[in-house]
Amino acid sequence: MRDQRTIRCTYYLESEIDPARAATIVAGEQSSGTFVAVPGESPRLHQRHGAQVVHVEPHGLRAPALPSRKTPEKVRAALATVDFPMENVGTDLATLQTAVAGNLFELGQLYACRLQDIRLPDEFVAAHPGPAFGIGGTRRLMGDAEGVLIGTIVKPNVGLTEDEFRLVVRELALASIDLVKDDELMTDPHYLPLERRVAVATEEIRAAEQVTGHPTMYAFNITGDLAGLRRRHDLVVGAGGRCVMLNVPVMGLPALAYLRSFTEVPVHGHRAGLAASMRARGLGVDYRVWQQLARLAGADHVHVSGLGSKFYETDEEVAANTLSLLAPLGTTIPPVPTLSSGQNVTTPGPTFAAVGSTDLLMLAGGGIAAHPDGPGAGVRSLRQAWDAAVAGVPLADAVRDRARGGDEALLHAAQMFGPGA
């Protein structure tokens, strides 16, 4: 009997052949089919294990998105919905990826192949714990911080000596920032090993907390060899660290799931490398698909780019991706959508208008470190910009009101980052 629990995938396809035929080839390639009949390929096997095309929506002719063995001028585009029996996959994330986003990208008959959406059976979702901390647990570790969480990245991102690193962390922690993180490029270099970075940062954060009363969280990048992942996690936790960071696309979802199985602190999920499988419109996996898998694997914070970003996604795409992270997924708690890349006082207004939530972490590198009055004013100006956004007050009015009250942090940030700056 065929498993009634199905993994439903929607693909964007381009091919010279009939779209329905192209969809059937994809379904066969990723389940029980082969390019030529082989012994044992019975109707019973196909009926039970074959992926099934349930809908094809033609989208007309267009130039091919991808190269292949032939170079037609026009190909036929379509959206194809395919159901995979859960029996083929079980509940393993790596097997799921292999089934729904594996060899099909190499099919020469396809001139585009992109996984646009996925709907997972309840049993699959329930088999994974999801984030251990999410927004609520993260806030608690930050002293029950309210509103949008404000964070930054240590800059310069690589090359700092231990003494230089110490001064950067000290200044940021004394600014009562919520989170500081390593850059994705910073792992365990000989000139500033992870062990020393953890010792220095936790020492400075504890000292600053005695002054400010605010517990800053530091996300230490423990990306590296899989065999040493637990050792690096334990190093952070043993020193009193409150967060670890993993470059998820580089390490892979199974590595994230492994980390989730023993982590004692939130996992800050960076997306470095994701665009290689996401940016091309005719190839790869859509963010809305990937974030579900990263969430099931246990990421507590998930990078989503940002509105007004230096990266390629449009503001509309970033908003939709952010909302997808906050959407229900079984009984898992939502991760913290983490906004980054060019964030400053001009972006809270459009961001809140687009997503309507303050369950966010905004990372601002230059938006804090480059503030003309120093990082403390940078953090304060971002909080003020968010207060204005939530209250529906235009940024220009908030700038004027704060300056009249004697606080020019927001004014100077707006002058530096505003239109025409």
Describe the SSE topology:
Layout: E1 6-15, H1 19-29, H2 43-49, E2 52-62, E3 75-85, H3 86-89, H4 93-100, E4 110-119, H5 122-126, H6 134-141, E5 149-153, H7 162-174, E6 179-181, H8 194-212, E7 217-221, H9 229-238, E8 243-247, H10 248-251, H11 253-260, E9 267-270, E10 283-285, H12 287-297, E11 301-303, H13 315-326, E12 336-339, H14 348-355, E13 361-363, H15 366-369, H16 375-391, H17 395-404, H18 409-417
Parallel strand pairs: 4-10, 5-6, 5-13, 6-7, 7-8, 8-9, 9-11, 11-12, 12-13
Antiparallel strand pairs: 1-3, 1-4, 2-3
Helix pairs in contact: 7-8, 11-12, 12-13, 14-16, 16-18, 17-18
Structural class: alpha/beta
What is the strand tally?
13
| Strand order, sheet with most strands | 5-6-7-8-9-11-12-13
Distance between the termini: 66 Å
CATH topology of the largest domain: TIM Barrel
User: Can you identify the CATH class of the largest domain?
Assistant: Alpha Beta
CATH architecture of the largest domain: Alpha-Beta Barrel
Gross morphology is globular
What would you report as the Rg, rounded to the nearest angstrom? 24 Å
Which percent range describes the beta-strand content? 15-25%
CATH homology group of the largest domain: Ribulose bisphosphate carboxylase, large subunit, C-terminal domain
Largest sheet: 8 strands, parallel, barrel
Compute the number of helices: 18
Helix content: 25-40%
- Structural domains: how many: 2
The residue-averaged pLDDT reads: 94
Low-confidence stretches: none
